[in-house]
Amino acid sequence: MSANRFLATGNFFTDYRQEQRIFRTHLDRGMFVVFLACLFAWPLFFEASNRTMLVINNILIAVVAVYGLNLVTGFAGLISIGHAAFVGVGAYTVAGLARAIGATHPLIVHWWPLMILAAGGMGAVFGAFVGLPAMRLKHLYLAIATLSFQMIFTWTIKFMPTFNQGQMIPVGRVSWIGGTVGRNNHYFFWYYMILVVAVICGLAVRNLLRSRYGRCLVAVRDNDRAADAMGMHPGLTKVYAFTLAGFFAGVAGALHTYMFRGAGFESFTLHHSITYLAMAIVGGLGTLPGSLLGPAAIYTLELQMEHLSEWSGTFLPDSFNLATALRPLGFGLVIVLFLMFEPRGMANWWRICRSYVKLWPFRY
Amino acid sequence: MKRNSFGYLVVVMTVAAGLAFSAPAVAGETYQLGMSLAITGPTSDAGNPYSKGVEDYINFANDTRILGDAKIDCPIRDDMYETAVTKRNFEDFLDQGMIFFLSYATGANQALAPDFTEVQIPVIPASMDSSLMKASPYIFLPIASYSHQYVGVAEYVATHHKGQGTAKVAAFIHPSAFGRAPLADFKAAQAAGMKLDLVEVVEHGTDLDNSALLQRLASKGVQYVLCQTVQSPVATLLNDAQRLGMAAKTFGEPGKITFMGAHYTGGNDLIALAGTAAEGFHWTTSYRVTSEEGPWTDWQLAMAKKYARDDKTANSHNYACGMMAAQIAVEAIRRTREAGKEVTRATLYDTLNQMNGDKAFESLLAVGRMTYSATDRMGVDRVQLYVVKDGVFRAVGEPFRLKYMK
Questions:
Q1: pLDDT tens profile A235-276
Q2: pLDDT at position A7, please?
Q3: Span A308-336, average pLDDT
């Protein structure tokens, strides 16, 4: 490592411990603190509409969910196309309990941090269970197994009266210091809560990847036989990856339920699973920044496509409904182009930017 | 000097033109409405003509100055049948100062019901699910609920069945609350005295062939199949019944099965999907259809022509649904203005609640008068039975009120 930990201009690692540091330089750490401070401070200085806050909160919830998907698909190399179902498990842990004991029961509205953790735990249990086939299955076969879980989840929610047969289950407004969080502060309050959870989860993932458990995931992904020969248990590692993915998804689901003040099955369909996968791919599989960039990019793209579709509807002939077709077409096209020309995702752009800045002012 | 004069002239003319164009905008108030519905994605076959109905009626209200010099602005957003997007659209509309919301899907309405109550905004949904009336006092159904329409079909069977003994029926329903809630009300009507023998309940999947199902129902002596779902599974069922020679062409034809359904099972889309197999299908709704002659048909087709809609849209009952939703909102604003009150969410809510008795609203597009009050959230409470005859829906008798359901 460079003697100067403020401005490292190259790779000067002398041991593994240095290489595994979360922040390579003080500048990195400083930048991260400033970035975090900005995230926490901006709502205090700029007035954002409820719509804007809702969009941002949705992005942050997706970030938490994609952390999990990235662990299982990006780091452990296991295709999961049932991730929305895991998010749904977390959402319905809170909503199902609210239906059973009442939407405004103290456990739901006062002990909500506990409920979020419990939802994560339930997601982890389901993740472990669904991950069991991973001990025997690989590639497309495993994808089908996760798809089955998605189908079973949808069917269960839509048929069981416990879950209101898929109809919305309302959840009361939560309490915080000073009383119930009212409508005026709802999105603002949840912005901070979700942000805190997203930061904690992000740091947890980053730390996990520095540990032997994290390295196990990558080793099993790259070559499970070699990993086996090295003394790792590929099967259990895969189950463990699914468990972690389920935990993050469960937490995201609980946040979703609280933010939307209820849960309905429409938010946890196969379409959403595919969208989560698209977020992970566009962001960059197997990268932590990818989990942040992917959801932001997909949501922004979706909003822009909505605007484009709305704007084009003002002059395109009505009879062909071209304006409505523009949205899915444009959305799909951008993702395909992305996969063709930047398969490593947006995280690669971030990497390029970082390495460019890292060498400054001694670039060449 | 000459050049300067020309410059002044340009400035004066620009200012004058600016004032002239801005004059109409400041002369009258603009009332902000909002609509979020599925123009693409699931159920867009209904949402698309519905949105055009809303758009055309709002344009009509502005063009014909129904509100005098005031205007209505009603942005229509596609939510792709996703609750999260509906919520985003709703919040956006609120930020823009919306005073009346036109909503769509059952799920989205249920999700947003607490918000409707909190912000106290009147809402007209496209979904006629009876649970919405309980979810928020601010939701006003334009016509009879799905349950009313379904029980209406059943009551018609109970009253008009000519065979011996109690009529044997099967329920063919959507595998969701949309299908199950009306079935629960059907059973409640049975408990209240409606004499029908419910032989089997079928929650359909996405089967492409219903031969086995139909044979089973026939073997159980089922005479009527009452459907509560959307058009495509009904069309498949009808096609199979025709192929097997089991479909009754007249009501209660002996040895055959008479197929009947509520609201979203029927309409011209069903005829387009099922073709000749739709002949003899009985359908209830509270809307008028353009295949029946009357002033409503002339008006609906004239509206569609005025705003350059194609034939399919012009004759769609979903187009009529959309127009009627917008009509209710415009009428509420008109009456509030007429009463000399400021048009706000609260005054609109009051106006809607007073829409009863002499003040009931009559729309050409529905089969009855629309009444709302503090305890009545269902606009038109009568239903009309239609039957497919020679490729179009024809009215059977007069609109009726339900005996076994309030």
A1: 899 999 999 999 999 999 999 999 999 998 888 999 899 999
A2: 65
A3: 70
C-beta separation of B289 from B393 below 8 A: yes
- Asked whether residue A5 is assigned to any structural domain, the reply reads no
Give B102's pLDDT tier (boundaries 50, 70, 90).
Answer: very high
3-state secondary structure A240-251: HHHHHHHHHHHH
From A209's Cα to the closest Cα of chain B, the distance in A is: 33
Least confident of A213-222, A319-328, A341-350, B132-141: A319-328
Q: Which CATH number fits domain B27-144+293-375: 3.40.50.2300, 3.40.50.1820, 1.20.1080.10, 3.90.1010.10?
A: 3.40.50.2300
Q: Counting Cβ atoms within 10 Å, is residue A301 exposed (0-12), middle (13-18) or buried (19+)?
A: middle
CB pairs under 8 A between A and B: 82
Q: Does B83 touch chain A (CB under 8 A)?
A: yes
- Residue A14 located in a structural domain: no
Domain(s) labelled CATH 3.40.50.2300 in chain B stretch across 27-144+293-375, 146-285+386-400
Tell me whether residue B65 is exposed, middle or buried, using C-beta atoms within 10 angstroms of its C-beta: 0 to 12, 13 to 18, 19 or more.
Answer: exposed
| Alpha helix stretches (DSSP H) within B64-125 | 83-95, 106-119
Separation in Å, CA of A258 to nearest CA in chain B: 12
- Residue A347: what residue type? A
Domain count across chain A: 1
> Are A186 and A193 contacting, i.e. CB atoms less than 8 angstroms apart?
no
In a domain, A114, yes or no: yes
User: Tokens in use for A229?
Assistant: 């020969």
* Confidence check on the interface: ipTM exceeds 0.90, yes or no: no
Task: Considering only the beta carbons, identify the residue of A55, A164, A167 that sits closest to B88.
Answer: A55
- Asked if B78's CB is within 8 angstroms of A166's CB, the reply is no
Asked if residue A8 belongs to a domain, the reply is no
Q: Which of A261, A267, A309 sits opposite B84 (nearest CB)?
A: A267
Residue B138 to chain A, least CA–CA distance (Å): 17
B150-173: pLDDT as tens digits: 999 999 999 999 878 899 999 999
Considering the segment(s) B146-285+386-400 as one domain, its CATH architecture is: 3-Layer(aba) Sandwich (3.40)
pTM: 0.85
Cβ contact B88–A54 (<8 Å): yes
Q: Which chain B residues touch A54 with a CB distance below 8 Å? A: 87-88, 91
* Out of A54, A319, A327, closest to residue B91 by CB: A54
Contact B110 A261 (CB under 8 A): no
